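Below sits my pick:
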Amino acid sequence: MMMRKKTKMAWSVALSAAMAAGLLAGCGSNGGTESTSGSTAASSAKTESSASDTTDTSDRPTYKIATVRWTDTWPTDFLHEGVMKEIEDKMNINIDWQVYYNSDWSEQKSLLLASGDLPDAFLGSICLTQADMAQNKSAFLDLTDLIEKDMPNLKAAFEADPELKAVCTSRDGRIYSLPKKLPLRPKVCGDVMCINQEWLDNLGLETPKTYKELEEVLVKFATEDADGDGDPTNEIGITNAASSGLLSGDLRHILSPFGTMVSRDGNYMGLNGEGKPVFMPMEENYKEAVKWMRQLWEEGVVDPEYFTQDGSMQTAKQQADGGSQVGLIFGWTADAQVGPNVNQFKTLEAVEGYDGNHYVEAATNYLDISDRELMISKDCKDPDTLLKWADEFYTDLASLQTFYGSVGSQITDNGDGTYNVDVPSDGSSLDTSAWSNSLRDFGPKYMNEDFYDKVSLPEDQGDGVKLADDAINEKYVDTEKNCGFPMVQYTDEDLSRITAIGTDIYKYVEAQYAHWVVDGGINDEWDSYIDQLKAMGIDEFLQIQTDAYNAYKENLTK
């Protein structure tokens, strides 16, 4: 069946280090061999593609473009086939893809930037951080005037969606990288809470609708043999991995009923009820949220390994043979977290928080929109042509294909102006297929929302599941306080300062959070905690973030 998208503690030192690690997860030549970071996967893909292509393209100009893939298990054939080759041929150029992998990109990137011998361009926001761009600004072109001259599709997207332009406009009013907005996205863009319906049924419990009811259910899950195996001690209310940016995740997930929504970039910035930027771990609602987590810990709801285990241990509990050992999970979709145990769970409607409001993550301005999707080096001999090539990616159909895969392979053209994203024929998931056969989340793209109604997705796979879940909670996406702190731009000086100040602040906040959940004491220690944050420079940090947010808001009106 198809659905149609209509809209869019004593151990605290070690702990803080682990959490911090989880948070901080030649030009114009005619080369024909794909460069990699040591893996043979990408070079094999290029060799196979080249062998099947009989067209003589040797007289075309060649651009070297570096891009990063999450894993070397994903093929790169798509870079030389389908829509990618069509656009290449249309512009009469060759792209020499320099493929790197995330596992060793940090080291490779440092060497590359230090060498000064850069490719013509970097594609994908995974390649370079804001700090990378700031520290190497002279190595990249100012694209502002070139966009005006060479990119009519992007200019049209800017007019249709001012946020797209705002997110890539630097504090000096110039544009140094191209943006993207992911297509066919839900209004509730963040992770959702899913509850173990099988355990609810076993215990004769109703679905919780308030945070107090949720607490009561979780206590029963953890103490009353919810899985029915005769042992009331082997069930876990909630679990997580210390390596996953745990505090940041908690503020968006289990603690969201307290209005603790924060940015996705690990800086713990949020917006309060009046839409004012705040450092969430200093707010009274954060204090109340931590006290609640402390209560859950004392009641046996929280996994004893919550603050120490890695992702594989978390997955083993959630995807255990014979049924999940966990009562409440958080993720993009349930199947992404619990795999074969997905039928145990149902998406939970956003529970009512202590203030009477329902909170969901609607961070479209961070998750779905970003800059740094194409950066062009200053030595590129013909940036106009390369930008004209990139402009082709801002059409509706190209954006669809660079997100799911090419027409004829992963997408069916129905011949009437509509398209089906196909269930993979090899038995893989649609998510796996999309990441293997397209740029997916990375690279330039923008799809006009009028085009959404022309695309059908499988209802039981990948994004189709998320869009179905979306219907449960989209009604709560109605105020600024449901939105995470957006992706903002900093001046070079400010970026340097918040990086220097923030590193120690984040470690301190994360260690205190774990300490207060496990040991308690937040009421007695709160004032000294605030004083310590001030001594560490939190006022300067907050002022920089506020200035950046205000500049972002101003750019929306330009």
In short: The domain at 192-363 is CATH 3.40.190.10 (D-Maltodextrin-Binding Protein; domain 2). Confidence is low (pLDDT under 50) at residues 1-52. The chain has three domains: 26-185+367-453, 192-363, 492-556.
